[in-house]
Amino acid sequence: MLEKIKHKMFRPRQKWEKNLFVLWFGTFMAGIAFSLVMPFLSLYIDTLGNFSTSQLNFYSGLTYSATFLVTAVISPFWGRLADRKGRKLMILRASLGMAFVIGLMALVTNVYQLIFLRLVQGIFSGYISNANALVATETPKGQSGKALGFLTTGSVSGTLFGPFVGGVIAAVFGYRLTFLITGFILILVFFLSAFFVHENYLPANDKDLKNSREIFHGLKNSKLVIGMLVATFLIQLGNFSISPIISLYVREIMHNVGPITIASGIVASMPGIATLLAAPRFGTLGDKIGTARILKLGMLFAIIVFVPMAFAGSIWQFGILRFLIGISNAAMLPAVQTLLAKNTPSYATGRIFSYNQSFQALGSVAGPLIGSTISGMSNYNNVFLSTALILFLGFFWVNFATKK
């Protein structure tokens, strides 16, 4: 038994496994890079001028949303280029571009420069989507669910850990040095990807490259692929709908007494911990019992968890429920990626995954807008109930899209 364990741990790794480990670290850092500014963005903007409360709220919302809006628009272009030139090239372009842009954010002198750089950061998106596409095409089909499940833990955990990491680094080193540290780490990601990620890909000729309409018409199950793109939007909307009010809701639960900032950071990170632990297991289980079934069970579980969140009576109850949401994410997000990988031809993988990133970015924008609007019109409790209702409707959509 011990010999088997030692052989499993120390055996030579195949190329797809090496790719997976390097790209996991890369997607984790890319997720952090996109979300680390959340806890201190408003405070950083406040140091760049004398703003009223309404101006500060406006510039904060615009600065945060700018990256995701550009990502939603530009991703299909990068997807087409990935299908023509290869996914590794797009990974290198995204990591190096993000490194310099985020590093430059440490040097801005006014809010307009910061907004501009956040827009440019959106242009250099695509690391996560192309990492998924590369793993999907380079991994044996029998291992794809497990591999994509493991890879998804990187981006999801990075996105959810980002606010906590950003808050801690900013508290210790200051706002500006936080951007520089992140930039240096992304340069490390660039070199790791350049030297240790291998792609066996023959770029398509321009004559053979189909346009988007031809790709969707040529899919064996276009209804399922489109259904998964919408599912990505709904899942991301659900994850981000409560992001504007988490700290405020924690403050309300704690009756404005105690270490509210630390508690908010821990609660915000709980889903990332759960996703990190559970996603590979759900990916393996999906390969055995069916990925679509895992997705639907994950959505139902998320609905069940969001409802009691509206009535949490203590910070411990809220934290446990947030952890359970991470388990539902571990079931849903890798399942979507796996279904897309298994139902997309290799010549179109880059573009389909880039469309998926566009829908993910739109969910990242729509979620906070819906959450802040509902909380402004009524109360925090209704944000959780509304999110549960949206996911409930999404469950019927997924059920329809995955019918044979």
Structural class computed from helices and strand pairing: mainly alpha
What is the strand tally?
A: 0
> Largest sheet at a glance?
none
Number of helices: 17
Q: What is the CATH superfamily?
A: MFS general substrate transporter like domains
Beta-strand content bin: under 5%
End-to-end Cα distance: 42 Å
Shape: globular
Q: Write the CATH architecture name.
A: Up-down Bundle
What percent of the residues sit in helical stretches (DSSP H or I)?
A: over 70%
How big is the Rg?
Answer: 21 Å
Total number of distinct structural domains: 1
Q: Within the CATH hierarchy, at the fold level, what is the topology?
A: Growth Hormone, Chain: A
Order of helices and strands: HHHHHHHHHHHHHHHHH
What is the CATH class designation? Mainly Alpha
Mean pLDDT: 82
Low-confidence stretches: 5-10
Subcellular location: Cell membrane
InterPro entries: MFS, MFS_dom, MFS_sugar_transport-like, MFS_trans_sf, Tet-R_TetA/multi-R_MdtG-like
GO molecular function: transmembrane transporter activity
Protein name: MFS transporter, DHA1 family, multidrug resistance protein
SSE topology sketch:
Layout: H1 2-10, H2 15-35, H3 41-46, H4 53-85, H5 87-104, H6 111-123, H7 127-138, H8 144-173, H9 175-196, H10 212-218, H11 222-240, H12 246-253, H13 260-289, H14 291-309, H15 315-342, H16 349-377, H17 380-401
Domain Major facilitator superfamily (MFS) profile: 19-404
Main location: membrane
InterPro entries: MFS (IPR011701), MFS_dom (IPR020846), MFS_sugar_transport-like (IPR005828), MFS_trans_sf (IPR036259), Tet-R_TetA/multi-R_MdtG-like (IPR001958)
